């Protein structure tokens, strides 16, 4: 869908002369195209296609997804509120997050008769950890997840892309801390990881904290570091003659130095959005104070549709192409013949079934080998148990034999003891009888 800059009534649409049309024919022998002009006898009506496109687009509505990347407290939520002239609900994040997580919020906005489904994705906890090496990974994973979700919907047999809520990120506003020195290594690494996946517009946040001369030098330093590190930021298109001049001018102002505020302060005889300081007032929409107006003009009023197109035609197509190549799809076969989806599907299906059968055979063989190994182990353990049983049996018999021998010895000892006891009792009885007879004789005497 092309860029729509304004809605025209059918009666005011510029029309080409109705007397001439162009026809292209192809010479079968040479293959060259030849252009022939055909005359139209009158007005046909296909010059109303722009009107139809505008009407359909307005009825369907638009979606726009913004990713805000920056440290906690750098002013991401305030800038979003200022850009859309409203107050979005936002939870204040702390500086003590264990990691980086993304928090998307979707809002339905309406201006005049145009409906916009706006999604603002905030990077909570970005740059707050001591170890920042993996801070970019959740952001990259989130962008890839949105691409994958859209790809899965696109590849369905029964698709519903007309009313599908597209969550692909259209623009990444990268907030840079106004240090006045140079970019942090985290900024360079993160933007380098994101530049092939999303349109990046760098922003110097809280630009009212540094002087104009320092800000000018800081902008030059940032662009120099981005170029030297191979970071590709989004350049506003200059192919369309209607926006060539303004986009060329705005490309020279990157990165935008912005100030956000939803507070209205009386300046002169009117109320303006501004930040009030003891030394003066910084007006948000005053171009001599900051670049907020330039950012709003480029982001919302001139290039919003181009950002949506770039996301689909460049970043999503790159992801889709890489994903399909990983799955084995190509534009041509090995013989450089036109690509056939049916043949590729059948080939991939056969390959998959072959791999499945191969894996099944491997698993079956592995199961058989495992059973054999288990049986062998069980036989070894059974043999060891049997040997142990025999050994215990021999030990038991030996102990039983020893006990029997000890028992017989004990019985012999007991019999010997009893014999000695009887003999002793007999001798004692005899001795007692012998000693009692003289005693009776003496008594008689």
UniProtKB/TrEMBL annotation:
Enumerate composition-biased segments (Basic and acidic residues). Answer: 396-409
One Gene Ontology MF term:
GTP binding
- PROSITE patterns tied to this protein: G_SEPTIN
Q: Which SUPFAM superfamilies match?
A: P-loop containing nucleoside triphosphate hydrolases (SSF52540)
| TM region(s), chain numbering | none
Annotated region Disordered: the residues are 396-417, 426-445
What Pfam families does the record point to?
Answer: Septin
Write the record's keywords in alphabetical order, separated by commas: GTP-binding, Nucleotide-binding
> Matching Gene3D superfamilies, A to Z?
P-loop containing nucleotide triphosphate hydrolases
Biased composition of type Polar residues is found at: 428-438
The residues covered by the Septin-type G domain are 60-326
Q: Which family does it belong to?
A: Belongs to the TRAFAC class TrmE-Era-EngA-EngB-Septin-like GTPase superfamily. Septin GTPase family.
The UniProt entry, under PANTHER family, shows: SEPTIN (PTHR18884)
Query: What is this protein called in UniProt?
Result: Septin
Q: Origin organism of this chain? A: Oncorhynchus tshawytscha (Chinook salmon)
Per the record, the gene is LOC112221248
